[in-house]
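Fold these two proteins, one after the other.
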Amino acid sequence: MDTVTQLKVPTFKYQAQAQSKEGSLLKIRRAVISVSDKRGITELAKCLTEFGVDIVSTGGTYKALKDAGVSLKSISEITGFPEILDGRVKTLHPAVHAGILAVRDNPLHLKQLHEHNLEPIDLVVVNLYPFEQAIQQTSTTLEEAIEQIDVGGPAMVRAAAKNYLHTAVVVNPGRYQELIEELRSHGGAITPRTRFELAQEAFQYTASYDSVISTYLSSIHSKEVLPDVVTLSMKKSDTLRYGENPHQAGALYGTFNAFFKKLHGRELSYNNILDVNAAAMLCSEFEKPSVIIVKHNNPCGVGSAETVEEAYAKALATDAKSAFGGIVVLNRPLTLAAAEKINDLFTEVIVAPAFAEGVLDFLKRKKDRRLIQQMIDVRSAKEFDIRGVVGGLLVQEQDQLRIKRDDLRTVTHRKPTDHDLDAMLFAWRVVKHVKSNAIVYARGDRTLGIGAGQMSRVDSSRIAAMKAADAGFDLAGCAVASDAFFPFADGLLEAIRAGATAVIQPGGSVRDEEVISVANENNVAMVFTGVRHFRH
């Protein structure tokens, strides 16, 4: 699981002390370079040689720099010891770590370096074995993954970051050009502020690296679905304009952008991202061409048909008023005919797996509207569902359970027809993604009314029926889905009065017999799923 969460921490007295002790420019005289990711490393090394820096390197990095004409020494020349155990041991030596960790204004440290014929190391340029990339390959075995766990690299990075007052550390190739410019601006030296920022980045890097390893190993032969320790380490991918509200800072971390690629329009907002996620998760429930319209994290319309144009018309008809300013997600390529219909209504974001010829040019006429291509099926994401609470996190599995016809248990005298079952299962797929308490009226290809987020299930039933009436739908003969059991018969009676003749619900209430009796008295077919889908 690729997951970094930055938590606000108290301001420590040390920070003020560091300001006064951080010293002056650090002249780089000696550098250790050992990188797996060799992008830009030759340019940085050549810049260092401009200032007479002695470069020491390891294995593949040494060869790459040597071949590029860089003058340098191998790590074995300063340790007096060969790289052994298939490269597992090469930098784990006092000649390396004493040079990195020595405090330059400590006379005892300098005396000990001199006594043991060791030299300070001013710069450490290291990035680690590509463990995360290795485990993303399905063919990677546990033994192969283990060999991609870096040991010497993290040790050097942590040592240099700890001693940032006297040693600079660089882990990110994206920083090389900035470092080159700084070296040239300061005659081969690095400023205190840069060293501190690089140390922060280095500790984030090693924390993230260890987190990925920990999560991977915890997933193997684990008896527990949820680990005893959750480690979160996720890179910031976007700084958002703000969070849910303008007075709140907001940012996006992780690989969301690998799933959804923006093709046009302003950057997605915090709330846009939440809505895109909700709509895409619901859309993944359907096999037929389907369209989901979401507003404030709840669906306001869902439709399925032979074409996306028809599916959109059905979704919009459920609640056209609420659809204004919403998010539209399709599970098929967006056609020009469907795009023309969507274009008639103000829509914040349109998401599709592809866009037919001419569609993007047509939709780009509205500059602010975001057009997003869904690149990966959201069902492939294996992350936990994580929410922050005071003092900690709530962690659970993703709710990916799907109910099929064979899973349903009929509990009433009247058996549901095939028509009823199609409508029930359609409503059930939708209600799973509606905030509790949730009630959904539907037919086999469309939603008719959605009641979301009420404290009373009766109120949800009434609101859903009211929405259907506002849309001009006759609910007679429709199906109704409830995300949790009916605790009393009143919620069911409300749905029956609205016209529902088929009911799908989890069951499990102490008053199930009372609810079933009411269904029988009104010749309503009812099935139990045995599964609840709360969404708080």
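Now the second one:
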Amino acid sequence: MVFKTLNISGVLLDRNQLIKYMEKIAVEHNIKISSDKNTYPIPTLNENYKFILETYRILNEHIKLGIKIHSAGEWILDNFYIVEEIVKTIRKELNLKKYSKMVGIASGKYEGFARSYVLASEIVSYTDCKIDSETVYACLEAYQRNKMLTIEEIANIGVFLKIAIIGHIKEVCERIFSSQIQRFKVEEMIERLVEQKDINKRIFTNKINYNSSFENELKYPFIEYMSYRLKKYGKYAGIYQEILEEQVLKMGLTISDVIQKEHLYIANLKITIGNAIKSLKDISRIDFSELLGEMSGTEGILNKDPINVYKNMDQETKNYYKTIIENLSKKTKISEIYIAEKALELAKRYENSEGILKQKRAHVGYYLIDDGYEELKSLLTNRKLNERNENYKAKLYIGSFFAISLFFNFMISMIIYFSSLSVWICVLSFILLWIPISEIIIRFMNYFMSKFKSPTIIPKMNYEEEIPEEKVTFVVIPTILKTKEKVQEMIRKLEVYYLANPYENLYFALLRRCFRRKLQKNGL
């Protein structure tokens, strides 16, 4: 398969210009439900990484040879390990199956590419690789004024930002690599013409073949470095200095002009590579689960939960609810916003209900992860679905276990019967084989279920800041007190637990089981 490469180039925009640009491309994007497999970015990432690695190696070689290193190349030497670790992480996080299921661009020059990949590349290109949490938030918010992003797109925007940044690092490395090649050529010419070393004593003889796509730019690094090296030889290199000046004049420039332009170009490359490396670090620190909570279009709807439970849940649980909505959206081809609104609509029916069971139904989560899921699905698809609650699933699991175990036990017992022709031996073997066969069957069932069924997250509340008075909690630590030393040890531990959790409405206690006679002997 031939994979496409996403190439987006842009000029640096200020914050207002960038926001307006994001709003503009949101209007222009026509989307489809999936991305094309031939736009998968990992092959391009691997090629980019391979070239960055090659640049890193040539910089190390040139340091050993005593060649002056390109200023932007120092960033590569000092921070290559960051790029290496991030590339390994991206390969694990983004597989082809996951990528192809993401919302794609339906038409235009970016047709087939994942929308979040295009969006991330646009952000990186128009910020000169200078990315932080505020920039990401502002861009996504601006985009969503015209088109809503899915939960999966927001959750993976960080991965695509890193891929786009590494692409820009590779482009800078091309300039660094070509510049180092020119410096090598200069050293080879100095050694051969100016120093006139014997061919057996020359160091710079291993020429590297490199075909550049920007040959015109290669002249400036060569001229700048040649001028720098010739000045060190003074009058001994005067004739070569004159030849160099004459050749530069033929280009309509002076050596001073070339040096000034090259230094300005190097300064810009240093800024770009510096922004890129710093942004890779900053993006790794961004909590995208929190960003997902702020940016998701479903968040505001779910926050209207009639019994005010959702907004007090921890971020993992909120993301789990939104993932359920996202998966349901993919199955039914219905907007995530619409699904969230329908779940809220169902919950509001029980807003003023009394009784624990009815209040349970007033929570939006009941229709996303509990028995109300089938009711929500029926409402969305306009057809009656059989309600299958947890009791039904438990019965199905237990029934399947007994049915399979009985089948295999019966088959083995029948084989024993036909071998022995004894009913009593058959019955006895059926009884004796029940435990080992059932144990094997349940292990196989649990193994296969773990492969096809992902574990369910238990919803949790977030009481990080404070525990409400109505949720007052008593932490009881059961222990056996045998000796005086054990009592003192547990009291110290209890004090540590208390000091580590300085919350209102949280209390600690020991639940003791003591050996009264032993404690009396120890004076307790």
